[in-house]
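User:
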Amino acid sequence: MTDPWVTRRIEALADYLTTSGVLDPRTSDGACWLRALSEVPRHLFVPALAWAQPMDDRPESVINKRDAPEPWWNAVYSNTAIITQRGDGYTDVVDKRAAATSSTSSPHVVMEFLRLLDLDHHHRVLEIGTGTGWTAGLLSWRLGDDQVTSIDVDSAILLTAAENLKAAGFTPTLLEKDGALGAPGRAPFDRVHVTCGVRDIPYAWVEQTRPGGSIVLPWMPLPGGWGHQLRLDVLDDGSAVGTFHGGCGFMMLRSQRRREWPPYEGESIESTTRLDPREIWRALDNGFGLALAASASHVVITSAGWEDGEGWSGWVMRLRDLQGSGWAHVSVRPGEDTEVTQSPGRQIWATLETAYMEWLRAGRPDRSAYRMIVTPGGQRVWLT
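Assistant: Predicted structure:
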């Protein structure tokens, strides 16, 4: 029986998810997931020591259940992402010098993705990325242990998730393997639930999903950047077509992590532009990110923001060409034209600028206006 003190915290989280519009208690699906918050309590899946990342203006911080239980409980039952591993487990979870490599996502985004799955009681689900096991537990509560398969490439993560799930009373099938390969021995599935960022969608997921089934994933075309909630519906011709929903940010599938870019070297071309790159940066999450993916998917913005150098400072956008070694960086000078420095050959700043102007001419279509198709030959985004 849940402690009344914990129950009040769960109810507060449920109130937040309701008032924010994530879950609607008037629908059977919304009411079901709200009930799941009590049946699969999140605190059973959060370690005593972790790093909290609130999804609002609260600062990030260490949370330690033993030394400071109140902040720990506040983080667990609020809209907070909680990092549980850094550096693939080779460093301390509170060492910010190492990249975060596993977490329990914020309840807001967890419920948005579970809602996109549109589950029915008979569905068999494949989960890519077990993490702490919380979403595997939610799926097992909804469908039954025997209908949930969750895979993760990290044996230590799987071991901890199995312990967490056992403590919560669930025993879904857990497999240690590369998520990009799926679980062919357990296929076919009705739903695939992906909990890590993906740029190139593995076709194995389509192959292992029944026609009429769905794949829900965080599609993140900019390596390490913000992405989109994508739902793909699998067709009987071996393809999958998808629609884009809200924004999201996840740790990347390990085989698709951001690579180390080669140094800027060789000849360069210098020019100026009247276009302020900050306009492009602001538009990425409002539809232009998908416009860029549709017209020039080889161009990626690797960083954007304020930089300080030797004797200078300013706002800088940096670009790379995924189909070659091309690069560009554009520097804003207040009151002046923007300075553009790029490698010769295919000039990717001009490509980005053209894509942005075409998006404006089209009337700034938002993410709902775009579609994706995945086939054995690859993937493509287009404006409908």
